[in-house]
Amino acid sequence: MELFDLIVIGGGPGGYLAAERAAQGGLKVCLFEKRALGGVCLNEGCIPTKTLLNSAKLYRHATESKNFGVTAENVKFDHAQVIKRKAKVVKILVSGVGMTMESNKVTVVKAPAEIQGKEEGKFKVVAEGKAYHADRLIIATGSEAVVPPIPGVKEGVESGFITTNREILDMTELPKTLAVIGGGVIGLEMACYFASVGVKVTVIEMMKKIAGPTDNDICKVLMAEYAKRGMEFKLEAKVLEVKPGIVVYEDKDGKHELATDKVLLSVGRRASTRGIGLESIGVELNRGAIVTDDKLMTNVPNVYAVGDCNGKIMLAHTAYREAEVAVNNILGKKDVIRYECIPSVIYTDPEVASVGDTKEACLAKGMNVKEVNVPMMYAGRYVAEVDAGKGFCKVVYDLDKKRVVGVHMVGSYASEMILSAAMMVDTELPADRLKKFVFPHPTVCEVIREAIFKL
Ligand code: NAI
Known about the structure:
By secondary structure, this protein is of the alpha/beta class. It is 33% helix and 26% strand. The chain has helices at residues 13-24, 39-44, 46-63, 79-103, 153-159, 165-168, 185-196, 216-228, 316-330, 359-364, 380-386, 414-427, 431-434, 446-453; strands at residues 2-9, 29-32, 107-109, 114-119, 122-127, 130-139, 143-145, 162-163, 177-181, 200-204, 232-234, 238-243, 246-251, 254-259, 262-265, 269-271, 285-286, 289-290, 303-305, 344-346, 352-356, 369-375, 392-398, 403-410. The strands form six sheets. Strands 1, 2, 3, 4, 5, 6 and 19 form a seven-stranded mixed sheet that branches. It has a five-stranded parallel sheet with strand order 8-15-9-10-11. Strand 13 (246-251) and strand 14 (254-259) form a beta hairpin. The longest helix has 25 residues, at 79-103. It is globular, with a radius of gyration of 23 Å.
């Protein structure tokens, strides 16, 4: 019997970090991964999309910087090269994860794993006919793209006309037109890339607004910026059918047929919890996601679930923190997760970043809050670098508890600035204390300082 202290199933950010931290804590760990280490984040999510978006940004800088005194002729965009570079970036980072596992003496099994109940009091996991046993399990099996039961969608995916976040990142030729079904985070980031490099993009979103729970004013700025790049939004639009080369949708003006070269399907993701034998040990699910508490424990003692598979917040950095909380609890250290302090970023151009609740969400909860909204133009560096931007930073302050409960930003550097805001939410410091922080000058981050002084 090959016996481990801990078996981790899934080698994405949740799984590999859990394995690393547990090994550093002195546990004998085995990690199973059926595809590539790094999971969706490294292979077909966060990292590859950021390489694409950076190329699009460079292209836009090269072609739209006349005001800044820079002009360039014959600027070309080579999408195939962008995809080639993406593959290289992914390879470097995936091999980095492999090396980290090796240096921490984690046993990595590259095969699909299935839990098969318990044997002699130990959890039994089988991969390629071989059995592995452990005292504890961490499930970190991630999520998969939702493929809705709309007529023609399954056939479209099979023919390659419809792509998900996975296939679109390997497409080596730019389509002339792209229909994006679902104006959430994946849809918007990919729409931003393709529209920036000359593809005619139409986003079809069934809700009244794009970007889910994102602040309304931020959504308006994003849509206005995108419209300048020729992007169209069909809101409150329901996709009825997909035929070869055509998306049929219905909105308040009736039924429409949109001819398009390609479709990106980005209507959400669901927890991957099927086919891994969770039923053999009785792990409780809720709508397909593993039910966990604030220590990431499931209903089964010594079984934890971290990352997208618990369906809480499907972000790589949530998975990181959840992995650490789970491992700390396994190692006997007290730790709980606080989801309200987790920042989120949409890497569009302009960038969107937020942490905590919007004013509207706070008011709906009956909280006594004040919101201040400061244009990014208050920050000298923003004016110097961005020229004319519509960026802003909103800070939501709980007047009763005297602490920041939400920060919502749109504009350059928002992705890098949001950490300081998340620390304000996490540490629960009052405005009087936050005013004593020294922000380097000139930085765009100073906009947060300006907002705090207006509270
Ligand atoms: P999402 O939940 O963000 O957005 C899906 C959108 O599709 C929603 O606006 C929804 O109303 C719409 N929708 C659903 N069914 C539809 C239909 N039949 N027709 C038209 N619209 C429809 O999901 P998305 O964009 O697929 O992303 C999945 C997950 O990946 C999210 O949890 C997201 O947070 C995460 N992610 C995070 C990133 C980041 O942090 N920068 C980047 C990419 C993904």
